[in-house]
Each structure stands twice: as C-alpha cells, then as structure tokens.
C-alpha cells in the first residue's frame, strides 16, 4: 500500500471519529483553549473559521482579539503557504478562493502562534491534515524566520496512536482537546 493510500485510510477513520465527537457537541473545549491563549496575550495569533465538523475556536479567538491581532488563513493557490488576514469578531466575511470564509477587508498579518485545525493527531505532536500541505508549508516558512508555536485544536477522539507521517510534516507544539491539554515533548 502506498503512503498516500495509508494516509487516505487514516483520514477516513479520523473523519468518522471527528464527526461522532462533533455530533455529541461537547462543551468546554473553547474555554480550555482560552486558558492556554491567556498566557500569550498580545502575541499575534492565527486561528481558523471552522468548516464541516471541525472543533470551534471562535470564542477563544474573539477573547484573544481583545488583547492583540488575530488572523485567519487565506489560501492563495495550491502548493503555496497560507497568508493570514486580520479577523475580528463580527467582521464581514466572504468566501475565499477555496470556499473557506475570509475577512471581506484583507489586512495581512504574520502570526507567531497558530491554532491549527486537523483531522488526527498523536501525543508526540504528529498531525494529519486534509492533504494539501498548506499548514506544513506555512509552519516551515514561519519557523525559518522566528519561533512559531503551533497549537493543534481537536476533539479527544481525533487522537491516533500511529499516524502515517512524512519528513515534511510539521509537528505541533501543544494539543488542546475538549478533554485535556497535551504538552508535546521532543
């Protein structure tokens, strides 16, 4: 079986676990994320606008926006790193190039902390995304110029023990779930 086939199977299983957790609509995850972000008040951060069954970081992002700049990802084109546009609670949004909502008025910013969506994670900081490599390229680019903290945000059910990772996959530094905070040690 090829690496891509293994990843496709891992994604399929992880999507099913994520949907089940999302359907249970468990409270508290955003509050746990807010507690973590409180230690980084004023640090430029980027979150994401949740799509499909992704866990919702918006309440924590709104709280953080009262203390410093918050951005959301903008996909310019396939195969390229993301850029980030400044977001504020209740700002006007439009559909971006790949259908993900982006602020109507684009004001680019560079985050030092990223709240990263994911399909599956491992306790050692492994992350399985959607397969486009956007966050891997982006984290690699950001980390090449300064320390950049990547916080995976997920349902606990998205944990996997054996992710099919590649050398280009960028690790998470911390993982926040609806149940706990996992500090990654390397």
- Share in helix: 25-40%
CATH topology assignment of the domain at 28-110: Rossmann fold
Question: Per the principal axes of the C-alpha atoms, what is the gross shape?
Answer: globular
Which H/E pattern describes the elements?
HHEHEEEEEEEEHEEE
CATH architecture call of the domain at 28-110: 3-Layer(aba) Sandwich
What's the alpha carbon Rg, rounded to whole Å? 15 Å
Q: From the helix content, strand content and strand pairing, which structural class follows?
A: alpha/beta
Describe this structure as you would to a colleague.
With 186 residues, the chain is of the alpha/beta class. The protein has a domain at 28-110: NagB/RpiA/CoA transferase-like (Rossmann fold). It contains 4 helices and 12 strands, in the order H-H-E-H-E-E-E-E-E-E-E-E-H-E-E-E. It has helices spanning 3-24, 29-38, 58-65, 134-143; strands at 45-46, 70-74, 83-86, 93-95, 101-103, 108-109, 113-116, 120-121, 127-128, 149-154, 174-177, 181-183. The strands form 3 sheets. The chain has an 8-stranded mixed β-sheet with strand order 6-3-2-1-7-10-11-12, with helices on both faces. The protein is globular, with a radius of gyration of 15 Å. One of its GO terms (molecular function) is 5-formyltetrahydrofolate cyclo-ligase activity. Belongs to the 5-formyltetrahydrofolate cyclo-ligase family. It is an enzyme of class 6 (ligase).
